[in-house]
Amino acid sequence: MRAETRRRWAIAGLTGPAYLWLTLTIFLPLSAMLWFSFQKKGPFGRHESEFTLKHYEAFFNKAYMQDLTWRSLEMGLQVTGICLLLGFPAAYVLAKRIRGRWREALFLLVVLPFWSNALVRIFSWTVVLRPGGVLDGAVQFVWPGAPSIDLADSWSAVIIGLVHSYLPYMILTCYLSLQAIDDSLIEAARSLGASAMTILWRIVLPLAIPGLAAGAVLIFVPVIGSFFEPKLLGGTQGVVIGTVIEEQFTVVSNWPLGGALSFILLAIVLLVLAVSYPFLKDRMRTT
Amino acid sequence: MAQPWEGEGMSRHLVPRLADGMGRVFLALILVFLYVPIAVLALMGFNESVHYALPFEFSTKWYEALASNERLLTASFNSVWIALANTVVATVIGTMAAFALGRFRFRGRTVMQLLLFPPITIPWLIIGTAMLVFFFWTGIGRGLHAMLLGHIALSLPYVIIVIGARMASFGPELEEAAASLGATPLQAFWRVSIPVLMPGIVAAALFAFAVSFDQFVISYFLAPPGISVLPVEIFSAIRKGFTPEVNAISTLVIFVSMGIMLAFARLSKFGGER
Known about the structure:
heterodimer; A: mainly alpha; MetI-like fold; 12 helices; about 0% strand; B: mainly alpha; 2 domains; about 75% helix
């Protein structure tokens, strides 16, 4: 069996580096954080390891932790909802109403922004939304004497910034599933007398569900784990579970608590993925 | 008998056209929403006032100031250096893994493919903090080397998936033909498989570069005081009160990133009809 042995060595040699790397820098760190989330103290100095559940209890005993988690979920729902309402129609126009070179060019224009640095995009919103900023200036120009718009450090600013960051995902996934819908289906419905509304509800939307679901997951999951967007745009209004986790590592150095909160957040993410799995599985079958 | 759509005459053509027009206006508004902040950012880099005050007065002084801003320049240099090293390592070992996963059937292959998804779906906040804990604990520590380790790990799944998609589009026939003509497996790999995979490899490399160059979260947790990369530097500039120099560098970053994306789109016909 020399060939078989050679084959095994080839597989091990080819996959080894990549998977060793992933183990060393992703899977072991996650395991280490899980371990420390059950430890009394973080990896500072020498001390005996001591098992404790107190960091998880801290989450369940402190009402504000749960409030902040709800706030993160609320943020995820609001951003995902707005992206759905804006992204689906935009994707529909792009996929079904515009043809040829224009469509390709516009599609590229839609996806281009999410390749710009996320932080830079948030930064640009701080310039636009602050009092005396660009939005304020524009409103004053159109309507002199209008009340000053001050969205700096507000919840609205957080939502606007996040929608701006994640909208292209929704347009992209909806576009891909809308493009796959055969136009002759819509033609057939129309020739049988279906109204535009009926066509949308009974044909287009059901067939586009996989794209909508994929977009929703791609947006919801990172948004509930976001921290620098709420921090930079929301200030004190932008305190969410993500910013609390971040501060456990960068400010107060309570790594075990940060770890425990991270794993609670991860559990929520897994729950979301499990719930959306049936819709996403559909997508894999259709494409 | 009259059909429901008869006798509506005008409206039958007018309504769809109106809806069409409204749809286009809507799409245009979405594009305005997507680009206005970016345009504002770029323009403000050319505005004279340090307080971003209007009216606009053209000036290149912030770009001149940027040219002598050691902190931002060092951070930019670090970013480019890490992104390049990341691209080389991630592309090479990712191509190897993608080839094995695409060409061989073996036990554990499905598990290996599934293992690519946690790094993509787990929020970066959690991965970044976990890396901080582990690197600190094992003595790897923080710094540019730690950032490079992290960036490569984040790039690898994307590289393997992109090249894997290219692998799936052609079977083992070409390599078999090469073998039957007397090529060793290594020769077949270098002279046949690699050239066929090339478009996928280049696309994956661009992807890896962008993942690293735009990466903030991981770098933020792994950057020790005093050493930083561009996104981390921009973050601290925003927090400490910024000057239009940050606009200038951000504009340059946006153009680099978008340039990479355009190159990527050309190479992979991303989104177009295949």
